[in-house]
User: What shape does this take?
Amino acid sequence: MSTGTLVVFENPALAQTPRFDAVVDLGGTRWYAAIFNNKTRGYNIKPGTQVIMPFTIFENYIGFRKVDEKRLQEAKRTGLFVDPIERNMNESAANWKKAQEYYAQKKWYEARGSAVLALLLERKAYVAIRTMFFDASYASVFFLLLALPFAYLLERLIFEFEDLKKRAAAFIAIFLAAIAFMVFNHPGFTLIASLPLVAIAFLMLILSIVPLVISFSHATEAIKELRTKFVGKHFAELDKFSAMLMAASLGLRNLRRRWVRTSLLIISIMIATMAFVSIISVLSTRYVAPVATYEVSYGYQGLLIRESSFRPLPSLLSKQIQSAFGDDIEHITEVIFYYPIGQQIEIARTSAGQPITIGAILGLDPADFKIIKAFEENWDAIFTPGSRPFINSNERVCIISAELADLLKSAGVDARIGGKIEILGKRFEIVGIINNSKVYLSTIKDLDGIVIIPFSREVEAGGRVAFRSAQPMDPSEVVIVPVEVAKQMGGQVFAIHITLKNPKKAPQVAEKITQLFRYNVYYALSKDGKYEVTRMATLTSQQVTGQEALIPEVLLMFTILSSILGAVYERTKEIGILSAVGLSPLHVAGIFLMGFTIVAIVSSFLGYMAGISMPTLVTGLKVNAGSMWIVFSILASIGITLAATAYPVRYASRLVTPSFERKWRLEAHAVRRGDTYIVKIPFVISRAEVAGAVLYLKEYLQLFQSEQAEGPFMVERIKYREEKVERGRSRVLDMRVRIKPFDWGVATTTQLKVDTVGKTTTWTIIFKRLSGTEHVWIRGVRQITDVIRKQLLIWRGLKPEERQEYINKARKEGLQ
Assistant: This one.
């Protein structure tokens, strides 16, 4: 640990356990902060004894190092790409060697600094290799799941056994062969701690899916039965699962029938996937780089460290940096902000009893008055005569503003230089008075342009202090004290200033600090009387190798698209036949889509298997087989293949329904006369079914007789009547309807007239606006018409016996 004492207690109930390792989890982090394993031998602690580890940071480094070395060896053996991790470990080893040399020379401070650097780099390698192991494990689970559809589809594509036993045997054989290949070639399967346990868990997952599917199917059927019982048969029911199986079956047969084209297409996609996996590789790397450079008039040559979102920094960070870079650092100082638990700090009361308060305390190091050149350059403009900077960090002195001094004087307090005031129960001598707050706010700024003064704060519910921005407080609300005094009050570190013995080394030191600690780091160098400030940050980049293969990959994808388009064109007559036998555009498109899905899954999996095997055939080729990039490569290959079917699917569906208009339009079947809309419904049924169809519509429209009913309108009144027309009869449903939203006050009468003359029937809907806005009424006309039209289409799709039920019911109710 960096400082302090760590005590680990052993449970007496585990006294018989021969050896122990100790790990430290700070909470809120995914990875361990410390590992103590006694060089992998563990600690043998008997009851009543203790083990004391001096220079604990050495033991912590060795714990991480031993774990990393073992895992690095496993990663290399399984073929993981570990070059960046090796670089970190080599740099860590170099710092560790320095630490040992300093330790042998009894240079304790330097030894600790080098050990801190070595530990931070080693833990960074630990986190990277653990992340790599997790990625490999996740990828192995993905391919384990993908092996199931691959094995099933490959069996259907090659063998297509009708006998269930032969089909199951072929499926199991292909699946086991794929898994065996994974075990020997994919690092994730090798790195898994217990492969049998994973196999058992996978089997349990598959076995649990079957009853879940069955239960879901039964529940769906039960819900449909209840809906039919209470609502009626007013919903189009399409067995999507059966349609999908039929489409897959037809797609497979078409692929087998054209086996030459299918083979060439699979080989093309397989080669493309193999190239994605083996040649093109993406590696996520983190590196330090300057993200902004600008000039400031007031500053200093050195470094600034600040936490993002204006939060406080760790209290021991400056000591860690001092120990790690002690050879380069001349001064390291902290800027302390102290905010009271309440809203204000009371320091005196007026004669009328009114409190005189301040909002915060600023702690500055005496060295800051020299480091920050603006203090020296503008001292006379900022402070009153007789003011002085702090001499040491522990003296009980303070600097106040002239405004605060005037308030204190009015309360009878000796608020001149040399006088004393009381803050939080302690007496402080005034050694300086800020006479010009504007000059202070405009000149005493840090390298990031923020004024060196506490920020305005907001106290949220529960007392939590939040800083929305770096808005500086007014100097009249702040008292400045020495840094150690502010710490004793309970202040926190909000900035760290560093000056170097050699200012030219600022870029290198800033880069190293940014690499080790994820804070905002700025460094400044003097340039033409000003200061050039650079902000450093840790960035994540995606390094792509094998980019030269991208153009051939694109050409290959266009070749695949051409092949798919050719396959659709060759089957134009087949599409016409499918349309003639009654298949909808959705079914026809599904046949093509399922066929291409089969090709995509089979060829992508085969391409993956070939891709991760390439390093054994091509010397010098490295494949990060455990990376999630491999998973994305496979998904991209499948996605590109399916995306290439977008046009063929559209083309096939248009061949089934060649009309230009793909949707029913109100304007094409309606005539408007003022506030009246007359809509003709092109619907033809036999004369015997008319009464049943009208009753069917009435039953459905009665569901909308409530404001809470789901739908775009509410039927206030509905009544059935009949009237005679020339050479026939007319059946009428009279309704009064309100259109949602009801706030617009739109109401309309709606008449559904079914005229039966001879053997023909005509369906007409007549709307008359009673009140409300026109555009809302027109929208309601469209919605009501759409509901009625769709219900008539569903009527046509009912089974003959279901339609007969409504016809018989209509006769009983007197509908002839």
In short: The longest helix spans residues 108-158.
